[in-house]
Every structure is written in structure tokens, then in C-alpha cells.
Amino acid sequence: MNTAGKREWSVISEGDKNRTAAKEKINQEELTITTRHTRDPSTSAVLEKDQRGFTGQNVRERHYLETRSLNQRLDSREGHTLDHSLDMACDDGSHEGTCKDRDRDWHHYSKSSGRSGRSRRSSRSRKQRDRRRRRSHSRHKSPSRRSHHRRSRKRSRSVEDDDEGHLIYHSGDMLRARYEIVCTLGEGAFGKVVECIDHSNDGARVALKIIKNIDRYREAAMSEVEVLEQLKTLDSDKKYACVHMLDWFDYHGHVCIAFELLGLSTYDFLKENNFQPFPIEHIRHMAYQIIRAVRFLHKNKLTHTDLKPENILFIDSDYDMEYNREMKRDERTLKNPDIKIVDFGNATYDHEHHTSVVSTRHYRAPEVILDLGWDHSCDVWSVGCILIEYYLGSTLFQTHDSKEHLAMMERVLGPIPTNLLEKTRKRRYVHRCKLDWDAHSSSGRYVRKHCKPLKHYMASKGDDHQQLFDLIGRMMEYDPAKRLSLEQALRHPFFSCYYKRSSSKSSSSSSKKD
What we know:
- The chain has 514 residues and is α+β, with helices and mostly antiparallel strands.
- Helices cover 42% and strands 13% of the residues.
């Protein structure tokens, strides 16, 4: 990529600063969305071929759906943040019920909405709704907003945006006389993703991400395009499991990015399979591909910063169905566990400004929570959290509160090292060089009930299980300096079958040359 190739890695350009500012604005908007108890559907949701209905959840499954949060990116001054509010609520005995029941107050908004009811509404009702919305807001608009609205109306009688900046479209619409819209796959703060027919490529189906016609989202999207173009150049042979951008263009102020159409996210497959864990052989296969892909990013001075099951998609989510007589239910087994990593909207180069808070809550590394700064190793922690989730079928750290999150880590992994607590700028989390935590409070009881030492989660004492848990434990080392690198992870005994296979291939090829 010419643009990326000319970048000075040691200097943050004005463009970088603008894009960073745009990302931070978007992060703050996502925090606002979090406080309304919704979840942000992002790119990970949206590259789907198919979305099937999901019913029959039991209490544990509903709890899991409701307690997963969207990406909570908190301002560095946390005086008025959600974390602080929950801390106060949990420490107040009169609000003990708030803590006990807070998991029921967090509603899951599926990131993989697929062919949602929203996308099936009729064209006429959608137009009427949009007209009513425009009329009701027109008298309250500032002069500048009214003039912007007039300009957007003038650009084309057939192209309009709604009040949130989304492109108004309908099934059958054509973009650039090439992409025919089929249906909506997902929606988020950034915009929407639609399934399209690419008429310039023999009618191939693609996923088209349509960014809102708002400056900060356009800037963030152009940053993602820049990353995707460089990845495409660096991985032209598609050796690594990173999604490839096929095309991008500007459509009346909307940045549009075309991707290959993929299957369900790993999270959505778990959800549709009643949160049954993946078989350990599938975990091994997915883990190896994830680690190779993220190592590729790190080698090219890039940190993903938002790795999670929603951002890991199956290439093809077809499955075989079998009836489990013991559990009295149908269970799905993937035919092909190949995956790809998506959503590079928050990917950050080593030379760029690092925002203080990154990652979705449940996959956030301790150094990020403690505001100690972060580097590539925060991705390693996230991968460890993902692997244990694949093994259990549910997320390990089910919380929306930073101090409670740290307490859960201590319950699972042991005490946080004193040297990390001494260096943190989050002094309200620490008392006398220890985590300031009341184990007898309602939050303390919640942590004790829902968490246990890591090895206690092991379902079998077989070698495969022990090796997997050893790998996870090394990836979830508190101290980033001691945490396993992804290069080291690929040489872990859990992946011995892969490096034995590769060494045998190399030896056979060398013998042929001889």
C-alpha cells in the first residue's frame, strides 16, 4: 500500500492525531450506549451468510446473554464513569440488591443480528417513519444543521440519510452500478453492514460495511481502510487468518468497505448451540490460526486491541446435528473450524498514540484496567480469555465493574503482583499494596460464587486438557513482561502436532532437493 509504505513510523502525523481523536470520540459514544444497556454490533457481526433463530435458553444461558457487555471504553478520568457508579452501588449496603441483580439489568444486544426484523420492515413504513422523524426534528435544528440537511438532500433525490447518519437504502438498490443490496446483516455505532451481489464479479456475494455520513466515523473508517490495505499487501498469498478487504469507495459521504462474506462468529455459533463448548480439537485448530494471525499483526507493528469471539468468524459455519440423549437436546458440530479475524477499526500501530482504555470488558488485560499502559501483550491476554471461553462455552469474567473484574482475576489466577498495584494510577483500587476488595460484600459473594481457580475449570485430566490450561495460564500472566509471546505460544506442546507436521514437510522437501 503506497500510503502506508510512505508513513514515517517514528512520527505521529496530523492525520494520525485526527484519526486518534475520532476513535476516542467514538469510544465515548460507545460508553454512552453501554449505559443504556445495549450492545454495539460491529464488523465482527456482520460478515454472515446466515442467521438462524435461537430459542429454548435455560437460566444459565439467559444469564450469560444478559451479562455480556459491549466494548466499554472508559474515559481516563473515571469520576463519572459506569465503573465508578457500580463501585458506589456495590459498596452501599442499601443497594445490595443492585449488585445481586445487576447481571439481569444488562441486556444483550446480539452483534450478529443477521436478517433481523428491523431489516424486514416494508419500504413504505420505513419511508413514512423517516419522513415523520425529519418533520418532528426540523423545527429544532440549528441553522447550520438545517443547511447541512438541505445540502444532503440536494446531492441526489434518490440518496438520503436518516437522522443518525445512516444511509437509507432498500433491498435491490444498486451502489456504484455494481453492488446490489440484498439484506441487512448487522448494525452498530459505526453504520450498517449489508449483504450485496457484486455484479462485477460474476454475482459473488460480499459483505459491504456502510459507514455513517459523520466526520468522526469517516475518519475512523479511513484509518481502518489504511490498515486493511497494508494487511492485504503484506499477506497477498492469504497465509494468515485475517479478513481481506475486496474494495472500498465513497458513496455520497459514506465510506463503504467490501469484504468477503463469511459465516457466523464464534460467539454466535456458541449461542446457537446452547453455549455448548467446542471440542478440544476444534479449539486447538482455531487457537493455532488465531495466534498465527495475531503474531503476523504484531510482527508488522500492529495491535488489534479488540480480540473477542464476536470478532472471530468461521469461513463456513455449516454443521452436523446430533441428538444428545443424556442432555436431551440437539447439538451442532462444525464441519470446518477454519476462522478469520475481523474488525480492524481499533487496530493501533506501535508509533501511534495509545488510548488509555482498549478492548471489550471481558477480554481486557489487567495492565489496561490499572492504567499502566499497554502493548502487543494485551492481545495475548485477550486470546487467553477467548480460549477459555471456547472451552467453557461461557465467558470467564462476567462483570461490568473494574474493581470486581480485578477481584475475579485474583480468584482465578491468584493475587495481583504488588509491583503492578504500586505503579497503578487507579489508587481507588488499591489499599496497602493490595486490591481494595471486601470479600464479604455482595460483590465479594458474587465473585466467590461465579469464579474459581483456573485449574478447577478443567473437565478432564487428559494431556490435551492439561496442555491447553497450561497455555492459557501462561497467556494470562499478570505481568506483561512475563506473559507468553505469541511466537512462544506457537511452540507450546499444545500445538506439537502442527510443528511436527511442518518439520516433517520441510525435511521431505529438503530430501527431494537432495
